[in-house]
Amino acid sequence: AQKVTQAQTEISVVEKEDVTLDCVYETRDTTYYLFWYKQPPSGELVFLIRRNSFDEQNEISGRYSWNFQKSTSSFNFTITASQVVDSAVYFCALSENSGNTPLVFGKGTRLSVIA
Amino acid sequence: EPEVTQTPSHQVTQMGQEVILRCVPISNHLYFYWYRQILGQKVEFLVSFYNNEISEKSEIFDDQFSVERPDGSNFTLKIRSTKLEDSAMYFCASSEALRWEQYFGPGTRLTVT
Lengths: 115, 113
Hints:
heterodimer, A: six-stranded mixed β-sheet, about 0% helix, about 55% strand, B: mainly beta, seven-stranded mixed β-sheet, four-stranded antiparallel β-sheet, about 50% strand
């Protein structure tokens, strides 16, 4: 069965600090897809990134970067030089390749960036 | 930029009443989903829909729930007889293909009193 664990429930940082949000997943499939979503205080879910299990290259998008390591089943998300607008709940999610499996979300990490 | 829309943004209903939550997915997307999020908790899958039929559903999606695509644009979730524990934020999502990124609507907050 697939499972996503985000062990950090809440993180608080001061603006301009770097912060890493951890995500560990479990799956029996060899092909799977990993996602990160942002949920700001307004409540919507904003897609950030999708990664397939065959692509272990790290990705950088502006201040955001993702570190995918199959050996440790982790897909961590780093925000560099955090800003107050980064304050949100961040969800990691997994979708297996077999069947029509939906997204399975972790419990989320609430990030508070203090000015 | 195309987006998923949902109406209403907030629905208050009495226990036992029927509610219909509406969604307009992104126009060229083929897969549609409903998820729910009880306040402060994680997002949970309810049902996925493709080619005018349910492709997968979770244990939460029991006989009280149904989905429909009544026309070429709308995608609805009906709860026949609401319970207190149905109070949650309900998100609609759509994707262009299976296992591609799902784009979520802004959600409908359902409050059952």
